[in-house]
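Structure ticket #2291
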Amino acid sequence: MKKSMIFIVALTVFGGIGTAQNVASGASKAAKVISTKNLKNSKVHLSKGYIYSTSKLTKVSHNGQNYTHTTFTRYSQITVKKK
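Resolution: structure written out below.
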């Protein structure tokens, strides 16, 4: 149940794990989307970074280091810029 919930959260954040791994922790401003790219269903494993619970990338819900053995499916790639 916990793995499926994390997977759902990861997919709702711009359809997967974004490229903004050092954006926002704590009280930060929203990120600005620079570009988007649709991908085929690619499988990814996290080794660092964060999983965000909001689409603005302002609230960190999980640390990627805790999910090194979990496979996530990524549908799109988002490049963001910290404001």
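Closing remark: The beta strands are 31-45, 50-52, 60-63, 71-82.
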